[in-house]
Amino acid sequence: MYIVEYIMNWIRKNKKIIIFIALFFSVFLLNKILNLSGYLDILDHLAFLERLIKDNIIFALLIYIGLTIIGSVLLALPGITFAIAAGLLFGPFLGTLACTIAATLGAIASFIIGRFFLKDGLKPFIQKNDYLNRLLFNNNSKNDLFILMITRLVPLFPYNLQNFAYGITDMKLSTYAIFSFLFMIPGTAMYTIGAAGIADKENRGLLITITMVLAVAMIILGRYLKKKFVNTENLHEEK
């Protein structure tokens, strides 16, 4: 009886996490059975979107943004895929804007889901680890912004996983949304402009040069912000 009561109490305390895990595996199984990733792989729909752009570019942008949000939030499709597609479809500058807006909206959706389903159950557990507690819950906005910068500058990280994780922290949604958008621009631009350069024979040299400059600038920016914003003493203070 005691074991049953303990299990029931644990379920009641962690019902949001259980629901989240159930939803996660449901989507995973549906993806395996129905191959949802294949339908949402935007690179497979380039020809359709290219035709649509000629008829109605606004509608094409909305479809692209919708596919990006669904793909990044539900199926963890890599952000680089959407960035490359944006560059091929909309060109270097509109493509960068469209991809950054879509990725930011997807990040906000995942953040809200993570905060609702995961924070109450996981925060007390994470706080038991001194390092993770100082890293994620130290009330140091400078360190928060640096961590956000690192995970946003290069869109290679699995967006949905890190966005759910940010929902567990104490970061404000407004801060998360604004700085996610800003920090994603350089990394997104690097891929969209690079993809556009490969497709654009006339401006290939210029666009590839811009891509290389962005890559160097990102390295310099990362080092500068680390020195300026990260208080490493906070992360290595006495345990």
3D structure, described in words:
The protein has 239 residues and is mostly helical. Helices cover 83% and strands 0% of the residues. The chain has 14 helices and no strands. It has helices at residues 2-13, 15-34, 36-40, 46-55, 57-74, 79-90, 92-117, 119-126, 130-136, 141-153, 159-168, 173-199, 204-229, 232-236. The longest helix has 27 residues, at 173-199. It is flat. The model is unreliable at 231-239 (pLDDT under 50).
Structure summarized in a few sentences:
The protein has 239 residues and is an all-alpha fold. The chain has helices at 2-13, 15-34, 36-40, 46-55, 57-74, 79-90, 92-117, 119-126, 130-136, 141-153, 159-168, 173-199, 204-229, 232-236.
Write the layout of secondary structure elements.
Blueprint: H1 2-13, H2 15-34, H3 36-40, H4 46-55, H5 57-74, H6 79-90, H7 92-117, H8 119-126, H9 130-136, H10 141-153, H11 159-168, H12 173-199, H13 204-229, H14 232-236
Helix pairs in contact: 4-5, 4-6, 5-7, 6-7, 6-12, 7-11, 7-12, 10-12, 10-13, 12-13
**Which geometry do the CA atoms define?**
flat
Count of helical regions: 14
Instruction: Give the biggest beta sheet.
Output: none
* Average predicted local confidence, pLDDT: 80
Structural class: mainly alpha
Beta-strand residue percentage: under 5%
Question: Strand tally, please?
Answer: 0
Distance between the termini: 39 Å
Helix and strand sequence:
HHHHHHHHHHHHHH
Please compute the radius of gyration using only Cα atoms.
20 Å
